[in-house]
Amino acid sequence: MRTNRRNTNNKNENITYLLPYIDVMKRNQAKKSPTITINKYNTSRVLTPRHRLKIATWNVRAGFQIGSREIIVRELYRYGISITALSELRLIGSGSMRARVPNSDDYMVLCYCGVEKRMEGVSYAVDRTISQSLTAFQPISSRLAILSLYGTINRHIIAVYAPTEVSSDESKDELYIKLQEVLDTLPRKDLILIAGDLNAQVGSNRPDWEDVHGNYGIGNMDGNGLRLLSFAAANELIIGNRLFRHPRKLHLWTFVQ
Q: What are the transmembrane regions (predicted)?
């Protein structure tokens, strides 16, 4: 699920369907989330609007086994993906590393953020060329991180791994409160993208959500979907992958029991 910031000044002041935690987030806007830059790169490549970036998300479910990271970057390299927000890489601690593409002299840069137990974790896989434009990787938690890129318009990608629908309401609200704090630390003039596994189903019903929901939703909205729609509406964001029709031959969702 990807979410793009809209460039508009027409803010809807009559939103009455937002969840209560949205009010909590607005009251806490002054509480900036502490961000620690643990990696800085030489910005030898300046991104411009002419640079075409292919950005993807992928819940890999594990990436700590021997050879698993090489398999991940091999698939991303094969599809020509520039930047991928990875969920559940399940590495310990925070940092960065190079992952070599099998049968190639090329590599990708992995920036990862996890916990002591091999659970959760958000990460980025960045191809070698685009990695020259990285300015900072800021790990926030095992569910949130920020990747910043230098260009004529600076870009920030917030990686998110949200609790599942069966998780407690407290854990879900905590994630969105923290996400709001992270979003508020970023300059509004920059290009901001929220990407990852939101574990949300926004459904196909558009009434009251036309500003954030495209014409190509599927299924029915669940509780996480309502949280995502409310967050997007409160921050004037658009759910990007509902703006276009997905090819029928592709999997629209995957369920593993």
A: none
